[in-house]
Amino acid sequence: MRGLFEKDIRIIKNQKKMMLIFAGMGVLLLLSGVEISFILPYMASVMTSVAISTISYDSMDNGNSFLFTLPVRRKDYATEKYFFVCGFGAVSALIVAIACGILLLVRKSEMTAGVLGVETMICLLIVLLLADLLVPLQIKFGAEKSKIVILATVGILVLGFEIMKNLDQYMQGISSWGRNLWQIISSYKILFGIAGILLVALLTFISWTISCRVLEKQEM
Protein backbone atom coordinates (compact mmCIF):
# COMPACT_ATOMS: atom_id res chain seq x y z
CA MET A 1 0.00 0.00 0.00
CA ARG A 2 2.98 2.29 0.53
CA GLY A 3 3.64 2.21 -3.22
CA LEU A 4 0.07 3.31 -3.90
CA PHE A 5 0.47 6.30 -1.58
CA GLU A 6 3.72 7.26 -3.29
CA LYS A 7 2.04 6.99 -6.71
CA ASP A 8 -0.79 9.32 -5.69
CA ILE A 9 1.59 11.83 -4.10
CA ARG A 10 3.59 11.94 -7.34
CA ILE A 11 0.36 12.48 -9.31
CA ILE A 12 -0.49 15.45 -7.09
CA LYS A 13 3.05 16.83 -7.49
CA ASN A 14 2.63 16.73 -11.27
CA GLN A 15 -0.36 19.06 -10.90
CA LYS A 16 1.72 21.91 -9.46
CA LYS A 17 0.20 24.58 -11.70
CA MET A 18 -3.35 23.66 -10.80
CA MET A 19 -2.44 23.53 -7.09
CA LEU A 20 -0.87 26.99 -7.31
CA ILE A 21 -4.02 28.30 -8.97
CA PHE A 22 -6.19 26.89 -6.17
CA ALA A 23 -3.81 28.26 -3.54
CA GLY A 24 -3.89 31.69 -5.16
CA MET A 25 -7.67 31.55 -5.33
CA GLY A 26 -7.80 30.75 -1.62
CA VAL A 27 -5.52 33.68 -0.79
CA LEU A 28 -7.67 36.03 -2.89
CA LEU A 29 -10.81 34.84 -1.09
CA LEU A 30 -9.16 35.44 2.28
CA LEU A 31 -7.95 38.93 1.36
CA SER A 32 -11.18 39.96 -0.37
CA GLY A 33 -13.19 39.73 2.84
CA VAL A 34 -15.26 36.68 1.92
CA GLU A 35 -16.72 34.99 5.01
CA ILE A 36 -14.49 32.32 6.48
CA SER A 37 -17.56 30.13 6.91
CA PHE A 38 -17.66 29.93 3.09
CA ILE A 39 -13.93 29.71 2.42
CA LEU A 40 -13.31 26.71 4.68
CA PRO A 41 -15.86 24.27 3.18
CA TYR A 42 -15.24 25.54 -0.34
CA MET A 43 -11.47 25.02 -0.28
CA ALA A 44 -11.82 21.70 1.56
CA SER A 45 -14.24 20.47 -1.11
CA VAL A 46 -12.01 21.63 -3.96
CA MET A 47 -8.88 19.99 -2.57
CA THR A 48 -10.76 16.77 -1.84
CA SER A 49 -11.93 16.72 -5.47
CA VAL A 50 -8.28 17.11 -6.55
CA ALA A 51 -7.34 14.03 -4.51
CA ILE A 52 -10.27 12.07 -6.00
CA SER A 53 -9.03 12.95 -9.49
CA THR A 54 -6.10 10.56 -8.95
CA ILE A 55 -8.57 7.75 -9.70
CA SER A 56 -9.00 9.18 -13.21
CA TYR A 57 -5.24 9.32 -13.72
CA ASP A 58 -4.98 5.67 -12.71
CA SER A 59 -7.45 4.64 -15.41
CA MET A 60 -5.78 6.61 -18.20
CA ASP A 61 -4.07 4.57 -20.95
CA ASN A 62 -5.21 1.32 -19.32
CA GLY A 63 -3.21 2.16 -16.22
CA ASN A 64 -5.38 0.00 -13.98
CA SER A 65 -4.80 -3.00 -16.23
CA PHE A 66 -1.08 -2.71 -15.51
CA LEU A 67 -1.56 -1.75 -11.86
CA PHE A 68 -3.52 -4.88 -10.99
CA THR A 69 -0.94 -7.14 -12.61
CA LEU A 70 1.28 -6.09 -9.71
CA PRO A 71 0.85 -7.60 -6.22
CA VAL A 72 -1.95 -5.12 -5.46
CA ARG A 73 -5.34 -6.37 -4.34
CA ARG A 74 -8.37 -4.40 -5.38
CA LYS A 75 -9.44 -4.04 -1.76
CA ASP A 76 -6.04 -2.55 -0.97
CA TYR A 77 -6.48 -0.08 -3.83
CA ALA A 78 -9.92 1.00 -2.53
CA THR A 79 -8.64 1.28 1.05
CA GLU A 80 -5.67 3.39 0.00
CA LYS A 81 -7.95 5.75 -1.97
CA TYR A 82 -10.12 6.45 1.06
CA PHE A 83 -7.12 7.06 3.30
CA PHE A 84 -5.42 9.26 0.69
CA VAL A 85 -8.50 11.30 -0.25
CA CYS A 86 -9.58 11.83 3.37
CA GLY A 87 -6.03 12.56 4.50
CA PHE A 88 -5.30 15.01 1.69
CA GLY A 89 -8.62 16.78 2.18
CA ALA A 90 -8.21 16.93 5.96
CA VAL A 91 -4.66 18.33 5.77
CA SER A 92 -5.80 20.91 3.22
CA ALA A 93 -8.71 21.93 5.48
CA LEU A 94 -6.38 22.30 8.47
CA ILE A 95 -3.93 24.43 6.46
CA VAL A 96 -6.76 26.72 5.34
CA ALA A 97 -8.07 26.87 8.94
CA ILE A 98 -4.61 27.91 10.20
CA ALA A 99 -4.42 30.60 7.50
CA CYS A 100 -7.89 31.81 8.52
CA GLY A 101 -6.83 31.86 12.17
CA ILE A 102 -3.81 34.01 11.36
CA LEU A 103 -6.01 36.35 9.33
CA LEU A 104 -8.44 36.64 12.25
CA LEU A 105 -5.59 37.65 14.55
CA VAL A 106 -4.35 40.26 12.08
CA ARG A 107 -7.81 41.71 11.54
CA LYS A 108 -8.75 41.34 15.22
CA SER A 109 -12.01 39.75 14.17
CA GLU A 110 -14.85 38.96 16.57
CA MET A 111 -14.86 35.29 15.53
CA THR A 112 -13.47 33.20 18.37
CA ALA A 113 -11.09 30.27 18.15
CA GLY A 114 -13.90 28.01 19.36
CA VAL A 115 -16.17 28.96 16.47
CA LEU A 116 -13.31 28.48 14.01
CA GLY A 117 -12.62 25.07 15.55
CA VAL A 118 -16.25 24.00 15.17
CA GLU A 119 -16.31 25.09 11.53
CA THR A 120 -13.06 23.22 10.92
CA MET A 121 -14.56 20.04 12.39
CA ILE A 122 -17.58 20.43 10.14
CA CYS A 123 -15.21 20.80 7.17
CA LEU A 124 -13.53 17.53 8.11
CA LEU A 125 -16.97 15.86 8.09
CA ILE A 126 -17.59 17.38 4.64
CA VAL A 127 -14.31 15.84 3.43
CA LEU A 128 -15.41 12.41 4.69
CA LEU A 129 -18.86 12.74 3.12
CA LEU A 130 -17.34 13.80 -0.21
CA ALA A 131 -15.02 10.81 -0.17
CA ASP A 132 -17.88 8.46 0.74
CA LEU A 133 -20.02 9.71 -2.14
CA LEU A 134 -17.52 10.48 -4.89
CA VAL A 135 -14.92 7.70 -4.64
CA PRO A 136 -17.35 4.91 -5.65
CA LEU A 137 -18.87 7.16 -8.34
CA GLN A 138 -15.45 7.94 -9.77
CA ILE A 139 -14.47 4.27 -9.76
CA LYS A 140 -17.75 3.25 -11.38
CA PHE A 141 -18.27 5.95 -14.01
CA GLY A 142 -14.85 7.53 -14.51
CA ALA A 143 -13.98 11.20 -14.75
CA GLU A 144 -16.28 12.39 -17.51
CA LYS A 145 -19.61 11.04 -16.25
CA SER A 146 -18.95 11.91 -12.61
CA LYS A 147 -17.96 15.57 -13.19
CA ILE A 148 -21.54 16.80 -13.06
CA VAL A 149 -22.19 14.80 -9.89
CA ILE A 150 -19.03 16.18 -8.28
CA LEU A 151 -19.92 19.81 -9.05
CA ALA A 152 -23.51 19.34 -7.87
CA THR A 153 -22.36 17.62 -4.67
CA VAL A 154 -19.86 20.35 -3.81
CA GLY A 155 -22.56 22.97 -4.34
CA ILE A 156 -25.09 21.09 -2.20
CA LEU A 157 -22.60 20.59 0.63
CA VAL A 158 -21.56 24.25 0.67
CA LEU A 159 -25.25 25.27 0.67
CA GLY A 160 -25.98 22.76 3.43
CA PHE A 161 -23.11 24.15 5.48
CA GLU A 162 -24.54 27.67 5.20
CA ILE A 163 -28.00 26.42 6.21
CA MET A 164 -26.62 24.55 9.22
CA LYS A 165 -24.67 27.64 10.27
CA ASN A 166 -27.84 29.74 10.34
CA LEU A 167 -30.20 26.98 11.44
CA ASP A 168 -30.91 28.64 14.74
CA GLN A 169 -32.13 31.74 12.91
CA TYR A 170 -34.28 29.70 10.54
CA MET A 171 -35.89 27.89 13.46
CA GLN A 172 -37.15 31.19 14.86
CA GLY A 173 -39.49 31.51 11.92
CA ILE A 174 -40.92 27.98 12.22
CA SER A 175 -43.62 26.68 14.51
CA SER A 176 -43.11 26.17 18.22
CA TRP A 177 -42.51 22.43 17.83
CA GLY A 178 -39.61 23.20 15.50
CA ARG A 179 -38.06 25.52 18.04
CA ASN A 180 -38.56 22.95 20.79
CA LEU A 181 -36.88 20.30 18.64
CA TRP A 182 -33.90 22.56 18.01
CA GLN A 183 -33.63 23.29 21.76
CA ILE A 184 -33.54 19.56 22.48
CA ILE A 185 -30.80 19.06 19.87
CA SER A 186 -28.84 22.00 21.31
CA SER A 187 -29.14 20.55 24.83
CA TYR A 188 -27.59 17.22 23.77
CA LYS A 189 -24.94 18.43 21.34
CA ILE A 190 -22.39 15.88 22.54
CA LEU A 191 -24.74 12.93 22.06
CA PHE A 192 -25.81 14.14 18.64
CA GLY A 193 -22.17 14.76 17.78
CA ILE A 194 -21.23 11.18 18.72
CA ALA A 195 -24.22 9.88 16.75
CA GLY A 196 -23.10 11.95 13.75
CA ILE A 197 -19.57 10.54 13.93
CA LEU A 198 -20.90 6.97 14.14
CA LEU A 199 -23.20 7.63 11.19
CA VAL A 200 -20.33 8.99 9.08
CA ALA A 201 -18.22 5.95 10.04
CA LEU A 202 -21.05 3.66 8.94
CA LEU A 203 -21.43 5.55 5.65
CA THR A 204 -17.68 5.27 5.07
CA PHE A 205 -17.78 1.51 5.59
CA ILE A 206 -20.76 1.17 3.22
CA SER A 207 -19.05 3.36 0.62
CA TRP A 208 -15.81 1.34 0.90
CA THR A 209 -17.75 -1.91 0.50
CA ILE A 210 -19.46 -0.58 -2.64
CA SER A 211 -16.13 0.56 -4.09
CA CYS A 212 -14.58 -2.86 -3.46
CA ARG A 213 -17.49 -4.62 -5.17
CA VAL A 214 -17.34 -2.27 -8.16
CA LEU A 215 -13.61 -2.90 -8.53
CA GLU A 216 -14.05 -6.66 -8.26
CA LYS A 217 -16.66 -6.63 -11.06
CA GLN A 218 -14.63 -4.42 -13.39
CA GLU A 219 -12.74 -6.11 -16.19
CA MET A 220 -9.29 -4.59 -16.54
TrEMBL record:
InterPro entries: ABC2_memb-like. Keywords: Membrane, Transmembrane, Transmembrane helix. It holds the Pfam family ABC2_membrane_5. This is ABC-2 transporter permease. The keyword Transmembrane applies. It comes from Faecalicatena fissicatena. The chain crosses the membrane at residues 20-40, 82-106, 113-136, 148-167, 188-210.
